[in-house]
């Protein structure tokens, strides 16, 4: 169960995106944060000051998840991708790619240009055009474009070259030495394209050398007291760095990819997958793998790939992983045959792919840490609590505990319940219900003796038929925990002795306020620590066995009440009575039903429905 208070404590002190889910696990809100810990906590503070709309959204939050990024810029782009993917109910400002500028390279021209655009339209990267971006800052994108033109002398005119060669004079850019005038034939097509390819590498992130050159020029200008030029170089460097924040969240091409990274600790591992579709990260998912302590990381990743893609209906063109795996060519061949298209498994060494793979790994580590804390607490509440109970009783190897309860109303519709806890967790598939057959009136001891006798006689028969059977009755408990004290313990021991079964039995001793104060075992009352996890496990067992018995008794009582009432209604015979009992869960639900509701019952006609409605209203 998702504990919001506990999960808030685990939020990282990092930028990222958070997703709010409702009780149906639908994403209802996506937001970004400079610091996830601070932003997400604000939603759950009592002193929060938010709009009625957001207040309503908060009331519907059942759980949240988050994805860590390396910068707020990345969080902004990822937020946009996820909002577009999930269309959450409470997000109003849905951004689109059209909100972000791209740099367009007309690579199909003989003297190609670099242009700024806010829409890719229906075009994709091809032999004629390439897109870089999107950029989250229009100003930074313009500065990037200006720097590329200025440094590599890329033309900015709209002249059709070389068809219009020499028809007009060279423009101002030539005279201020920012263009080599291909319009006048002053640079060859081959040399121009060399400069253009260098400009593309610069825009694509290979800008270290350019930054160093600009820094050198800035220093020289400053030393020559040319502060205006120095400031210009400084601003240019700043804007280039700003524009080139590594936006790993949006890829430069439209190839579908899955990024797979893993974090391992002792015997468990978390595999994190980022789904990239049409060049954008649209989601992620965590997978848990057990029994990995003796496995190499590459083996775990390889096993995961084989297991995951065996069952998934969609396989991307490319799978990006952190390190080489065995049989990679064989796995690629198998995936390609399944997809009917070439599938590649790659290990990136640099660039955006490597950075996104590292980001996936970082998120896997955070998830593993978070899950490790959860599993540790879960172990304390279950296995650890069971160990405390064993220590109190002086027993060993107690895994399965059974508890029983009786429920009736002055002896009417007396029933019994049996619940099972294994290693501190309820095993509901082994729960059993009993109708008391041989006891008349409110005699809990005799009722308990009946259900214990029936339970273990049935179990012995199952064992005779199949000694290895693991069914609910065939598996005997390691410990029986009676809700009462000495009296109930003695009833259980008497039944076990008669059937020649050896199982330890303990009982729970109550104080004057009906609170458990100790355990009755081996004819003595043993003290327990009411602040320990073992005590809270005992409480959960008590509550569960009571709940199960009371619900069974209530359902039988309700059916009897409905049945006896329905017998007096004109038009309701055995068939319609059974249909009504099947359709409505109890007498209260039937009492509150409208004529139209009753008409939904099989074989019901309006006149009889009106008779039923009128009967209960009167």
Describe this structure in words.
The protein is built from 20 helices and 19 strands. It is an alpha+beta fold and 618 residues long. It folds into five domains: 4-95, GIY-YIG endonuclease (3-Layer(aba) Sandwich), CATH 3.40.1440.10; 102-243, no CATH class; 257-379, Nucleotidyltransferase, domain 5; 395-529, UvrC, RNAse H endonuclease domain (Nucleotidyltransferase, domain 5); 567-617, DNA polymerase, domain 1. β18 (516-521) and β19 (524-527) form a beta hairpin. α5 packs antiparallel against α7. The radius of gyration is 36 Å and the shape is elongated. Mean pLDDT is 82; it is low at 93-98.
Write the layout of secondary structure elements.
Blueprint: H1 4-9, E1 16-21, E2 27-33, H2 36-42, H3 52-59, E3 63-68, H4 72-86, E4 102-105, E5 114-117, E6 130-132, H5 138-152, H6 172-175, H7 189-203, H8 208-223, H9 227-243, E7 257-265, E8 268-277, E9 280-290, H10 297-311, E10 318-320, H11 328-339, E11 344-346, H12 351-381, H13 383-393, E12 400-409, E13 412-422, E14 425-426, E15 432-435, H14 444-465, E16 479-482, H15 486-498, E17 505-510, E18 516-521, E19 524-527, H16 533-566, H17 574-583, H18 587-591, H19 595-599, H20 606-617
Parallel strand pairs: 7-10, 10-11, 12-16, 16-17
Antiparallel strand pairs: 1-2, 1-3, 4-5, 4-6, 7-8, 8-9, 12-13, 13-14, 13-15, 17-18, 18-19
Helix pairs in contact: 5-7, 5-9, 8-9, 12-13, 13-16, 14-15
């Amino acid at each position: 169960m998702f504990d919001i208070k506990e999960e808030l404590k685990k939020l990282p002190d990092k930028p990222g995106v958070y997703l709010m889910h409702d009780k149906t696990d639908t994403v209802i809100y996506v937001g970004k944060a400079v610091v996830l810990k601070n932003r997400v906590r604000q939603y759950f503070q009592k002193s929060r000051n938010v709009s009625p709309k957001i207040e309503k959204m908060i009331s519907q939050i059942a759980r949240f998840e988050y994805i860590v990024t390396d910068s707020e810029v990345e969080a902004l782009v990822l937020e946009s991708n996820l909002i577009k993917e999930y269309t959450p109910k409470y997000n109003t400002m849905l951004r689109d790619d059209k909100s972000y500028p791209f740099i367009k390279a007309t690579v199909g021209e003989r003297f190609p240009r670099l242009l700024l655009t806010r829409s890719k339209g229906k075009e994709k990267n091809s032999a004629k055009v390439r897109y870089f971006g999107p950029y989250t800052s229009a100003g930074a994108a313009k500065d990037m474009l200006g720097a590329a033109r200025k440094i590599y002398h890329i033309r900015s005119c709209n002249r059709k070259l070389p068809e219009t060669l020499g028809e007009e004079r060279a423009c101002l850019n030539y005279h201020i030495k920012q263009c080599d005038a291909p319009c006048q034939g002053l640079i060859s097509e081959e040399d121009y394209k060399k400069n253009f390819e260098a400009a593309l590498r610069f825009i694509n992130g290979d800008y270290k050398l350019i930054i160093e050159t600009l820094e050198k020029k800035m220093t020289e200008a400053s030393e020559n007291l040319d502060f205006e030029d120095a400031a210009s170089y400084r601003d240019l460097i700043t804007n280039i760095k700003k524009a080139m924040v590594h936006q790993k969240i949006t890829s430069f091409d439209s190839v579908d990819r899955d990024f797979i990274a893993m974090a391992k600790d002792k015997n468990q591992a978390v595999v994190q997958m980022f789904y990239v579709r049409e060049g954008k990260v649209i989601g992620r998912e965590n997978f848990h793998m057990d029994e990995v302590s003796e496995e190499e990381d590459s083996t775990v990743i390889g096993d995961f790939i084989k297991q995951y893609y065996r069952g998934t209906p969609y396989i991307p063109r490319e799978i990006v992983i952190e390190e080489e795996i065995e049989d990679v060519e064989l796995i690629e061949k198998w995936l390609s045959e399944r997809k009917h298209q070439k599938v590649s498994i790659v290990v990136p060494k640099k660039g955006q792919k490597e950075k996104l793979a590292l980001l996936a790994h970082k998120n896997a580590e955070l998830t593993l840490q978070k899950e490790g804390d959860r599993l540790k607490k879960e172990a304390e509440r279950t296995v650890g609590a069971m160990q405390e109970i064993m220590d109190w009783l002086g027993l060993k190897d107690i895994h399965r505990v059974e508890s029983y309860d009786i429920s009736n109303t002055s002896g009417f519709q007396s029933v019994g319940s049996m619940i099972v806890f294994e290693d501190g967790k309820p095993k509901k598939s082994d729960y059993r219900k009993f109708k008391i057959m041989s006891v008349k009136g409110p005699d809990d001891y005799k009722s308990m003796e009946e259900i214990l006798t029936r339970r273990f006689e049935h179990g012995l028969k199952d064992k005779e038929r199949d000694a290895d059977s693991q069914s609910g009755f065939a598996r005997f408990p390691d410990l029986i925990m009676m809700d009462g004290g000495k009296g109930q313990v003695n009833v259980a021991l008497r039944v076990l002795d008669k059937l020649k079964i050896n199982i330890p039995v303990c009982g729970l001793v109550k104080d004057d306020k009906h609170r458990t104060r100790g355990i009755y075992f081996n004819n003595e009352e043993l003290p327990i620590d009411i602040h320990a996890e073992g005590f809270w496990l005992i409480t959960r067992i008590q509550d569960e066995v009571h709940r199960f018995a009371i619900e069974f008794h209530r359902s039988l009582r309700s059916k009897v009440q409905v049945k006896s009432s329905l017998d007096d209604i004109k038009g309701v015979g055995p068939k319609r009575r059974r249909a009504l009992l099947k359709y409505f869960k109890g007498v209260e639900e039937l009492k509150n039903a409208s004529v139209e509701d009753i008409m939904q019952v099989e074989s019901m006609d309006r006149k009889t429905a009106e008779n039923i409605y009128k009967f209960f209203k009167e």
